[in-house]
Specification:
single chain; 320 residues; alpha/beta; Rossmann fold; 2 domains; 6-stranded parallel β-sheet; 6-stranded mixed β-sheet
């Protein structure tokens, strides 16, 4: 009888052990690849993020996972908050987001991470949140590069640096704030005419530039830290085009074929800087996938901008 009881106890222990193993929740690393979903949230669905969209979808195809493109309808941080709330309900595995408002989105990102979602930032960071990593431009250094490039434009025509109007986007965007800090660290404060905030609205940005160029004749340079308005062609901003044609300096941000052709036409007083959006999308998804399946990832992945001016504009045009 004693031997029977010992045998029965052993059988029951084994049965409980098997049942315990079967009831454990499925780990992300054990999840079928085709079931993994990463949502990519840009600041806005505009031309500047097209490369991010294309490269993130390419990475998803290569990995065999699903990537969804979740673009807010406005730059208001509340729109991105709403998107994150919905993605928590849908129980996605990862979120890759460019933050419109770092402070406003901090708690939303933390809420998503508490729900078991891996969140990473690209392009515009939210450094005080629980995000897994940031991937994007070294924006403070990019601002410094812009100031150095502007300095060279004045040197091209043997002029001393003059008053510069700075066009930015959203006041609360971390990436644009970092660019402005970098620019100010290299450009004398008394030579900054004004910082204009367009809230990443192209038409409003055009109106701001037009008004200030017409009203303030002491401006001799324009620095775009947010460059979307010029991507459709500088000719679409007649006041800026006229300003440059009369010798005004302009350093743009980001690249389009029409902008490069314009720089080629005005070689001594225009230039732009190019970001690596392809890497942000592709490597952003790749690294977030690694985080989801439990692999270690870098906390910060930074890319330098590339200056495009009269010396290399033809080479860049050949790539487009």
């Amino acid at each position: 009888m004693k031997k029977f009881n010992i045998l029965l106890s052993a059988v029951l222990f084994f049965a409980l052990l098997v049942a315990s193993c079967q009831s454990k929740p499925e780990k992300k690393s054990e999840k079928n690849k085709s079931q993994i979903i990463i949502a990519v949230i840009p600041k806005l669905d505009n031309v500047i993020f097209e490369q991010v969209k294309e490269s993130s979808l390419a990475a998803a195809k290569e990995l065999g996972i699903t990537v969804t493109w979740e673009a807010p309808t406005s730059i208001n941080g509340e729109k991105q908050q709403e998107l994150i709330e919905n993605l928590i309900k849908y129980k996605v595995d990862g979120i890759l987001i460019s933050c419109n408002d770092a402070e406003m989105l901090q708690e939303s990102i933390n809420k998503a991470t508490r729900a078991g979602i891996k969140v990473a930032t690209f392009d515009s960071d939210c450094p005080n949140s629980g995000r897994v990593f940031y991937i994007g431009t070294d924006n403070k250094n990019a601002g410094k590069v812009c100031a150095e490039t502007m300095q060279k434009l004045y040197e091209n025509t043997n002029q001393k640096p003059g008053k510069v109007a700075v066009l930015s986007g959203g006041v609360s965007a971390f990436n644009l704030d970092e660019r402005l800090k970098g620019f100010k660290s290299e450009w004398r404060a008394e030579n900054i005419s004004e910082v204009l905030y367009s809230y990443e609205q192209v038409d409003y940005g055009n109106e701001l530039l037009t008004y200030h160029l017409q009203q303030n004749k002491s401006i001799s340079g324009v620095q775009m830290l947010w460059g979307v308005p010029a991507l459709a062609g500088v000719d679409s901003i007649p006041a800026l085009n006229q300003f440059i044609s009369k010798g005004g300096k302009a350093v743009f941000f980001d690249v389009s074929r029409s902008l490069l052709l314009y720089i080629k036409k005005h070689p001594d007083n225009t230039a732009t800087v190019k970001q690596d959006f392809h890497s942000m999308g592709y490597n952003g998804v790749m690294n977030l996938y690694d985080a989801i399946i439990g692999k270690p990832v870098q906390i910060q992945i930074l890319y330098d901008v590339k200056v495009i001016d009269k010396n290399n504009v033809d080479d860049e045009l050949k790539k487009m």
